[in-house]
Amino acid sequence: MATSNKEMEETEDNTELDPRIQIELENLNTATDDINKLEIELEEANSTFRILMNESTRRLKLSSKKLGSCIEKARPYYEALEKAKVAQLECQAATLKYQRANEIHAAAKETVALAEQRFMSNSHEWQFDNAWQEMLNHATIKVMDAEKQKAESGAEHQKKAKVFEEAEKKVQQLEERYRRSIQKSRPYFDEKQLCQEQLEAQKGRIQQLEQQIQAAKSAYSTALRNLEKISEEIHEQRGDLSQAAPSGPREPGVGAELANILPTASSTTASSNSSNNLHKVPGKDRFPYSSTMPDISSELDKCEIRSVGSASVATSSAVSEKDPSEEDDYSTMTLHDDEDDLPAAVAAAAASSTVDQDDDLHLELLRQKVRTLAVRPVEGGDGQQQEQDVWEHELNATVDKLDHLMMLRECSRSSTLMSGAATSPPGGDVCEANGDAALASKLKRKMSM
């Protein structure tokens, strides 16, 4: 009985948990909680970024349509102004660098002068030995290095100052040339700058969360590796290596993923095989990381209107209008002065072709705009009443313009048919326009409910 009791006591001592296991398990649980919490925050941050991007593009598109072509005319000025600001910051940095180099050079010269003065004043008491010579040489070398750095900083400062002066001159020239367009388009570029700052701040928050998630995953993987090492040590102490965990890669657990973190390699073969395996960490890569996020500046530039021929077409999903200062009066279109010399039949044919081409182009633009406005609330505003009123007003104006254009076109073709010209009936276009108008009316009724 005494022998069996001793064996039971030894078994209990062997089965007692290593205190390191409890520590690593706590680290594992802490890392898991951090990963889950940070990924929730990352999801919210990405959602906020998308909302900000949609809202920014919506506001910029609306502002771009109101201002028209003056944005394109004023663009070189604002680009030059941005370059001038960057050049000014670089010039200020070069100035500070030159000032520091000048101060270091003056201090080094003063040190050498004081050392020489003290030695000369006490030359009858001190002896010029090797230590004094070495100290003086070291101070002289510092003076020479400081003088070299001062010369380089001065040259760099002059270069940056020249670049800044040229940038300022270009800004003044562009301001004198496009003064009216610059003043008119200033609200757009101010709004764009504000949107860009907000998006950059949110993007920085996303990048910070991603780094914290990677750090938490690294801590999780480290805890797993430490637990594996502790387990192997315990099996070695017990002498039952046959019951140790099988070598080779682990199978991913339920809800686990592979971390993109390679553990450090060990000197032994067993630890090397274990370290080559990627450890599993909780969570899933549900969110786009900042490396795949869109470029903010290019996305905001897509909101601007690009002029092509006589029409202005937006590079994004929305299709823009003409400059609001230009009235679309289709009933007052006339021929150019150089067509007066043509025969009457040729002039009439040219006029009909020109009017038809312009009408087709404007009709297609208006149709696309009706479709764009039909889906605009889904693209993302926050549903505020003021923005909804602006959208409804713009949709009503577009539908009215489309109806007016279709009526003018139908009247023109009817008169052409009565005069004997062979033209195709506009029934298909009328049906399509009525379909677009019906879609817009249905959407307006839905929004008003």
Could you describe the 3D structure shown?
73% of the residues lie in helices and 3% in strands. With 449 residues, it is mostly helical. The protein folds into two domains: 18-304, no CATH class; 327-448, no CATH class. The protein has a two-stranded antiparallel ribbon with strand order 1-2. Strands 3-4 form a two-stranded antiparallel sheet. The longest helix has 60 residues, at 179-238. The protein is flat. Residues 258-280, 284-289, 305-351, 377-383 and 421-433 have low confidence and may be disordered.
Topology:
Elements: H1 2-15, H2 19-67, H3 70-121, H4 130-177, H5 179-238, E1 256-258, H6 269-275, E2 280-282, H7 296-301, E3 305-308, E4 311-314, H8 344-380, H9 385-418, H10 427-448
Antiparallel strand pairs: 1-2, 3-4
What are its keywords?
single chain; mainly alpha; two-stranded antiparallel ribbon; two-stranded antiparallel sheet; 4 strands; SH3 domain-binding protein 5 homolog; coiled coil; SH3BP5
Condensed summary:
The protein has 449 residues and is mainly α. Helix content is 73%, strand content 3%.
* DSSP summary: helix tally: 10
Number of strands: 4
The total domain count is 2
Shape: flat
Biased composition (Low complexity): 264-277
GO biological process, one term: intracellular signal transduction
Keywords: Coiled coil
GO cellular component, one term: cytoplasm
